[in-house]
Amino acid sequence: MIILAIETSCDETAMAIVEDGKKVIANYVYTQISIHTLYGGVVPEIASREHIKKITYVLDATLKEAKMKIDDVDYIAVTAKPGLLGSLMVGINCAKTLALVYNKPLIMVDHIYGHIYANYLEDDFIFPLLALVVSGGHTELVLMKDHYEFEILGETMDDAVGESYDKVARVVGVGYPGGPIIDKMASIGKPTYKLPRPDPGDYNFSFSGLKSAVINLYHNETMKGNEINKEDLAASFQEAVIDCLVNKTMKAVSEYKVKQVIVAGGVAANKGLRQRLGEEVTKQNIKFTIPSFKYCTDNAAMIASAAYNQIKHENNSAK
Ligand code: KG4
Ligand code: ZN
Hints:
By secondary structure, this protein is α/β, with parallel strands linked by helices. It has helices at 33-36, 44-66, 85-102, 111-117, 161-172, 178-188, 208-223, 230-256, 271-283, 293-296, 301-318, and strands at 2-7, 12-19, 23-31, 75-81, 106-110, 129-134, 139-144, 151-155, 260-264, 287-289.
C-alpha cells in the first residue's frame, strides 16, 4: 500500500511517499522557520501564504525524490486537524484536488496520531503501549491497547511543553524556536537554580507556573544588576521539565503495566528527555522507542504511517 501524505498544519510544508506505513520512499520538508524567526514565533497569515507559494514545488520535489508519478500511489493522506486553520486548508485543498483528479481515495489524518505513528516508522508496536506526546501545542499521556485506539490518561492544564520552551527562550533572548536552543544550552550548563515541579494531580501536567518562575527569576536578577548564567538557567528549567514528564510517565507505566513506551512530537527531539526517559524505561525491561530526529518535528512520513494504520483499522472494524 503506497501512500502520498501531505502535512501543512503549522510552519512546515511537507510531503512524503511511504509504503506499508514503514518504508519511506520520499520525505520532503520545506520549513518556514527562517521567516517566522524574524517575528519570534509563527505568524498564521504568513504561514498560510508560504504554504500556498511552496506546495506545488514540494509536490514535484517529493515525486522526483521517489522517482514516481501520482498514478503510482494508492492513497492520498492529509493532516486534517489540529493546527492553524489557514495552513491546514492549503494541504487539504491540495489533497482533495489530487484525489479528485487522479481518482484516489482520500484519508484525513489527525496530526497527533501522526506524531504517535512516527514511532511506527522505526519499530513495531506492542500493546498495551504508552505514548508521551510532547509538542508545541500538546502534552498528553496516551494509552493504546491496540492500533488506532487512543485513550488520553492526562494532559496539560495550561501550556504545552514546547510552548513553554519557546516562551522561556524568548524572554531570555536566545531566539526561536526555543526548544533546540535551550536543549543545547542545558547540555553546557548545570542545574544550579531552584525551580518548582508543578503537579496538578492524576496524569495531568502544568508548565505555566514553571515557565513563570524562570521568567520571574530572570527579570528579578536582571533588575538587581546580578548576572544570570543563561546556560545554568536552561539546565535548571530542562531538569524541572524532564522531572515532571518522567515522573508521570513512569507512574502510568507501572499502573497500566505497559509493554512499550514511545515518545511523540517535536519535544521528543530533546536530548535530555531522550536520555533520562530511555534509562528509566529500559531499567524496567520495557521496550522504549523514540523517532529519529527528522521524524520528531513536523513531517509527512508520520502522516502516511498513521494513514496506513487508520486504513487497516477501518478495514478490520468493517469486517
Ligand atoms: O511537533 P512540532 O514540530 O510542532 C507541533 O505540532 O507543535 O513541535 C514543535 C515544538 C516547538 O515548541 C519546539 O521548540 C519544540 O517542539 N522542540 C524542542 C526541541 N526540538 C523542538 N523542545 C525541546 N527540545 C528540543 N530539542
Ligand atoms: Zn506537530
